[in-house]
């Protein structure tokens, strides 16, 4: 494997400059995805820009009434945060399902977003909670962030700085279906909210997505209609982890289950 | 770059993008840390960075500049006496082929540091990132539970 240059920025502004001015550079945070790809040679950047040590990208805070989580704050910090538990408990639940201690100590929301895996465990929660991706230059609603298979709205050299939750999302419910409790990549991930009506899923299409027809039915209070409409919203496939048929059935059953258990207001 | 390794200062001149796992095993000759899957799935390469358990196959060595790293070689007490956890693994038969053992010890050590009296469920969750294909886990859990304080 040809040598990959390791660059250490002083701060976020420096990191943005390095990402912009270094041809073919990739930002590196906890490494839980990128280090695997580097070693396997499936991505071959000329340089990595280390974000892990940048304190501006860490932490969980209130900003103008919104909850904001630093892009490089590890899942362990999210799981232990009373603020997140209060504002969006489903994000705590989703973070607990990621890998195990070793991965939770290094995995980050910024990495989950930038990597844009259709199976990213937290991504449906971010969609259902109307979260916003804050970059070094703008704010992008998560609903507009995923453009295609592992393609995002990020421009060249654009860095994710934080994830913001403008409104409390205490009503979001989450479930991940995988082969086992720990270290599993999901077969289906579902996050829902009754009010506002949100149905978001992972591992059932080339991107994590909002199920718009199911949401329309849910706005009318029609749970069975939402479950039926889901079939036209998602595009599951057969792969090593599951089958299209299994994913469709389970997505519909989990959606019904979560909606039945969700508070109606 | 400089860091503390098992209590001793280390100064190294290596490419920061190399895996911590490879630098430990190949440059520093600490082969107690094992490579299993190389993808962050199995936990065999677990080490502690500033007290937190991580997979060293997923850490770029440049990222530990200024940090404190503990590998299985650093778990024994001064003078080389085994730690109570290591001793419990031996006494309870918690190792068979041994490949997962260094990672298990470090994950268990981190768990007990954070939670000195874990329940069995908490031990199962704390070690969920470490796969063992021999023991069936029962004796590993027994050994960790025997070290509750």
Set out the fold topology.
The complex is a heterodimer of chains A (265) and B (149).
Chain A (H helix, E strand, L loop, with lengths): L4 E3 L4 H10 L3 E4 L5 H7 L6 E4 L9 E4 L2 E5 L4 H5 L2 H6 L1 H8 L4 H4 L4 H7 L7 H6 L3 E4 L3 E3 L4 E3 L2 E2 L7 E6 L7 E5 L10 E6 L4 E5 L6 E2 L1 H8 L3 H11 L10 H18 L4
Helix pairs in contact in A: 9-10, 10-11
Chain B lengths: L1 E4 L2 E4 L8 H8 L18 E4 L2 E4 L12 E3 L13 H8 L9 H14 L5 H7 L11 H8 L4
Parallel strand pairs in B: 1-5
Antiparallel strand pairs in B: 1-2, 3-4, 3-5
Helix pairs in contact in B: 2-5
Polypeptide structure, described:
The complex is a heterodimer of chains A (265) and B (149). Chain A has 265 residues and is an alpha+beta fold. Helices cover 34% and strands 21% of the residues of chain A. Chain A folds into 3 domains: 5-50, Uridine Diphospho-n-acetylenolpyruvylglucosamine Reductase, domain 2; 55-165, Uridine Diphospho-n-acetylenolpyruvylglucosamine Reductase, domain 3; 173-261, Enolase-like, domain 1 (2-Layer Sandwich), CATH 3.30.390. Chain A is globular and about 55 Å long. The model of chain A has no long low-confidence stretch (mean pLDDT 93). Chain B has 2 domains: 2-73, Roll (Ubiquitin-like (UB roll)), CATH 3.10.20.30; 84-145, DNA polymerase, domain 1 (Orthogonal Bundle), CATH 1.10.150.120. Chain B is 30% helix and 13% strand. Chain B has a 5-stranded mixed sheet, covered by helices on one side. Chain B is globular and about 40 Å long. The termini of chain B are far apart. The chains are: A alpha+beta (265), B alpha+beta (149). Chain A binds chain B through residues 3-6, 8, 28, 30-32, 35-36, 38-39, 48, 50, 52-53, 76, 99-103, 105-106, 181-183, and chain B through 15-17, 19, 38-41, 43, 46, 52-55, 57-60, 62-63, 65, 107, 110-111, 125-131.
